[in-house]
Amino acid sequence: YFDDVVWAELSTDPAQGGSHGGRGGGPADQGVVYGSLFEPSDVGAAGGGRAGGAGGGAIRLVVGDEAVLDGSVLASGVGASASAPSGAGGSIYVDAAAIRGEGLLEASGADAPAGRGAGSGGRVALVAPVVEPGLLSRTAALGGVGDTSARSGAAGTVFVLQGSDTLGELILDNGGVATSQETELPGFFPGVLEVIGADSVTDTEASFVHGLSGMEVFFSGNGGDLWPIVANAHFGDTLSLDVTGHPLTAQTGDSYEGLYRFDRLTVRGGALGISVAGVDSVEGVTVEAGSTWNPAYLPSLVINEPSSGTSFAGGSLVTATVAVSSTLGVQSVELSLGQESAILEAAPYTASLQAPVVTEVTSLPLTATLVDGSGHRLTETVTIQVEPNSASPPTVAITCPSAGAFVAPGTGLDLIVEASHADGIQRVELLEGTGETILATDATVPYALRYEAPAGTPAGSLLELRVRAVSAVGSSAEAALSVPVVSSTVLTADTTLEAVDLSLDGQSVVVAGATLTVEGAHSFQN
């Protein structure tokens, strides 16, 4: 079942046929394959645009005895008007003690009018100790026919588990329909685990397509152990696993990969099979003439510039150029450097990103992510060096307090700073002594900073405060202020000192967040 949000994600170009078990026909590299091979339950995607033909529905038959199918069991896509693309096939699932009959089962994509894309085939799964060969020969999930091979839909999938088979047979058959669209098995690229649950694993960089149940997953450091996937959210980052009698032993940081296992795999009738996940077929893979099988699909992503280790001045522009290729098409290339990013949807894949302003040499990753036509993400990274900019320094001055100011232990000192530069000021920082710990910062005129003297600061000591202004291009300059620490009486509440009250005379007095009203003549230190 898909909600409206997911359907929006599956929407396609107005000329693109609906996708499900394979890619719909059409001019665009769009359409997402989805749904379980082993227990399909999803409807097919409609053709693109508002007038696209509907996708096929979902049929589920679970029979305690024999299922005798003498009629037509149809979950095929629907054609549209002369100006719209067609829908993809839906799903048929039959589980019985035996499956036989004189009928037919079909979850095929609909044919398309000239200039529009046909729907892809859907998914069929038959599970029974006996599946009658004649009925199986009349079971299909074909792509619809378009006026060119690009506009014809890809084959869907037919899965059969019968007899002595333990893993079943997967059939990709397009019935002789010539197409350039692939039948991709839902899968994902290898990744790295970030969160491990009792029965789930998470990779926040992943985007798992809906319907991976039945695929198995394995982890580095776990030998040949496999855990079946039982559920996952569409474009989510978590896989729920079957750990019954087999506790999960994966660790954070382990790499993971997906694997499909079958007794046999057959590709025929012009189908173009492809898989991101690994595929293990006990009896091998049969690929008939006119069909193809690509069991280890991986797009190409190379960062041509900059090369790793290249140095750039802070605030300067870094030109990034990548080369990409994918048999499933390219949706976009995402480039990122620090807080800067760019999304490119067409070649040439080049963008200029501004290096952050730094005060010391800093290593930063520049990341390129390829999103292919099926939504798979592949990431490459180079590390560049960003150096402080050697441009002219800004001017900086502490305008308040003036020389002669002091501070008492446990109290604060407010500073007002003036700073300017032809390229603008990025920020002003407060530091102490020779250290580089930033005690306060401000990026807005007037630049106001506050120093808090620790309560244990010894009276008689001298604080060396530094104010650093950093320009928009990374150059910097400092101003200094020496502040003596004195032993003082600290007033934190409003106080009136009458003329006859000499209790504070001769002392150093600090008024903190309060008002001192002085009547008559009094004498204070500092």
Would you write up a description of this structure?
The chain has 526 residues and is mainly β. The chain has 5 domains: 33-181, no CATH class; 185-264 and 273-297, Elongation Factor Tu (Ef-tu), domain 3 (Beta Barrel), CATH 2.40.30; 300-387, Immunoglobulin-like (Sandwich); 395-484, Immunoglobulin-like (Sandwich), CATH 2.60.40; 489-518, no CATH class. It is built from 2 helices and 43 strands. Strands 13, 14, 15, 16, 17, 18, 19 and 22 form an 8-stranded mixed beta sheet that branches. A hairpin with a 2-residue loop joins β28 and β29 (340-344). Residues 1-9 have low confidence and may be disordered.
Quick overview:
With 526 residues, the protein is mainly β.
Radius of gyration: 35 Å
Major pleated sheet: 8 strands, mixed
Spatial separation of the terminal alpha carbons: 78 Å
Number of β-strand runs = 43
Low-confidence spans: pLDDT under 50, at least 5 residues?
1-9
